[in-house]
Amino acid sequence: MFAEQAPHGGSSSDAPPFQLGLLGHGTVGGAFAQLLSERADEIERFNGRRPVICGVLTRSRGDFEQILAGADLLVEVIGGIEPARDYLLRALRAGKHVVSANKQLLSQHGEELFEAAREHDVRLRFEAAVAGAVPVVRVLEESLAATPIDRIHGIVNGTTNFILSEMTRGLSYAEALAEAQRIGYAEADPSDDVSGRDAAAKMAILARLAFGSPVHLDDVRYEGIERLHADDLEYARELGLGLKLIGTAERRDGGLSVHVHPTFLYGGHPLASISGPFNAVTVESETITELTLSGPGAGGRQTASAVLGDVVSVMTGGARPPAPPLALALVSDVSSAFYLHLDVEDVPGVLASVTRVLGEHDVSIKSVVQRGLAERARLVMVTHPVLESSLRAAVAEVDAFDFIRAPTRTIRVIEEEFT
Ligand SMILES: NC(=O)c1ccc[n+]([C@@H]2O[C@H](COP(=O)([O-])OP(=O)(O)OC[C@H]3O[C@@H](n4cnc5c(N)ncnc54)[C@H](OP(=O)(O)O)[C@@H]3O)[C@@H](O)[C@H]2O)c1
Predict the structure, then answer these.
(1) Cβ(59) to ligand 1 under 6 A?
(2) What's the confidence (pLDDT) of residue 232?
């Protein structure tokens, strides 16, 4: 149990302590209280005020009204939508600053919270809601505030990145998931992670920051890693590709496209080398070419360090909440290169028939791998970029051939390498 006051008995300077109300005392909240007790002296030394915890709320202790009344800032590490949303709106409307690590809340009710913060002229910081300790929110809001961003790619879910890294070592999806659960990288119910929904929430937040347009979690198309086959990773290796769960937010045709999909990368892409439970985000702009940030995406102490960084940012007058949004149309039919995996009967003319149909739909082939397996064969191809609607139409036609043994598998491919 920690003291809900200055770790060393109070502020040594004349300035009054900076009072923090801590909502939630689990993995991140507990680590935050510990980190604060270690760092409060240093923060006071350069800031002039000492941050102290004036009250803690969990399900079994603390009184929200009392904590709110005594706090300059509320740290929300409860998670979920309610009661976190209600608490944060009440805090902002009461003129209190807020720091939150809550991606679900920000990706579904961000505009409501930003508006309340703007209206009451208080700070709302949320670095830990995206990519844990990786300071991508700050970089987008401040360092790149004057840079027109074209595209963001992110590995923003450490659980799935760990599972895919293990699958690349030869484990099946089930074995890799079991290993992630054994080590503690995956929850007993991993559905939010493996379905891509967690990454989608983070990409909605990043898209809002990078492009100034409101993006709700429901606007993000996402696909998870549950249906991936280990042999896709194997064939792709022969084509020089590695597999990641990639979130993409990009300007397309005057609008904005935000999606999360399993995606192949060539070895020269900055995200290709991010393995294990790490997170990384690549920002592309004509002005800066490419910039990549990477680091631990989760963990109590790592996340707490981002939360405490936000507290210090507020104490030093850091960035205001995002400006009111400018709505961009959401574009869903975007072009990409694709990996195709066809399970076919090993009979003459298969490749010619497939390439004819693909060609009729403007799908051109960049590389092909063929494998004979008794009377069956595998045809693995990577296409040049093509509109997704054209690719889907072509695959539907190919799958109607009698020689096709199973529905063709398709996975996006990022062509850029930046080498
Ligand atoms: N863990 C990570 O590595 C990580 C990384 C990045 C972001 N985050 C985000 O950080 C937030 C907290 O995650 P966590 O892992 O620390 O969660 P956690 O370990 O489950 O802790 C949640 C805390 O919130 C309290 N709480 C839950 N419902 C409450 C309610 N209705 N009223 C008051 N208190 C309530 C819990 O109280 P009890 O103690 O009474 O149960 C507990 O203290 C989430 O938004 C999560 O997405 C976590």
Answers:
(1) yes
(2) 86
Token representation of residue 310: 């936000």
Q: Which atom of ligand 1 is nearest to the CA of 306?
A: 6
Token look-up 């890693």 returns: 225
> Which protein residue's CA is at the shortest distance from atom 23 of ligand 1?
24
Task: Please state at what angle helix 103-119 crosses helix 84-93, rounded to 10 degrees.
Answer: 20
Q: What pLDDT is stored for residue 9 in this prediction?
A: 42
Does ligand 1 lie within 6 Å of residue 277's CB atom?
no
Tens-digit pLDDT profile for residues 252-284 = 988 999 999 999 999 999 999 999 999 999 999
Vertex 213 angle, CA 209 and 214, to 5°:
90
What distance in angstroms lies between residue 155's CA and the mean position of ligand 1's atoms?
A: 23
Cα–ligand 1 centroid distance for 15 (angstroms): 32
Residue nearest to ligand 1 atom 41, measured at CA: 59
58 CA to middle of ligand 1, Å? 9
Ligand 1 closest atom vs CA 76: 11
Is 58's C-beta closer than 6 angstroms to any atom of ligand 1? yes
Residue 308, pLDDT score: 98
| Cα 255 to ligand 1 centroid, rounded to whole Å | 35
pLDDT of res. 376: 82
User: What residue ranges in 71-193 does DSSP mark as E strands?
Assistant: 73-76, 97-100, 124-125, 151-155
Shortest-distance atom of ligand 1 to CA 129: 7
Closest listed residue to residue 73, CA positions, set 8, 14, 17, 31:
17
Out of 96, 103, 202, 244, the active site residue is 202
CB atoms within 10 A of CB 241: 23
Question: Could you say which residues of the chain have pLDDT below 50?
Answer: 1-11
Q: Which residue has the tokens 């002229």?
A: 121
- Report the half-sphere exposure of 120 (CA within 13 A, side-chain side): 19
pTM: 0.94
CA distance 65 to 418: 52
Q: CA 164, 170, 172, 174 torsion: positive or negative?
A: negative
Whether 202 sits among the annotated catalytic residues: the reply is yes
Tell me which residue of 75, 102, 92 sits closest to 321, measured CA to CA.
92
For residue 2, the model assigns a pLDDT of 41
Structure confidence at residue 13 (pLDDT): 64
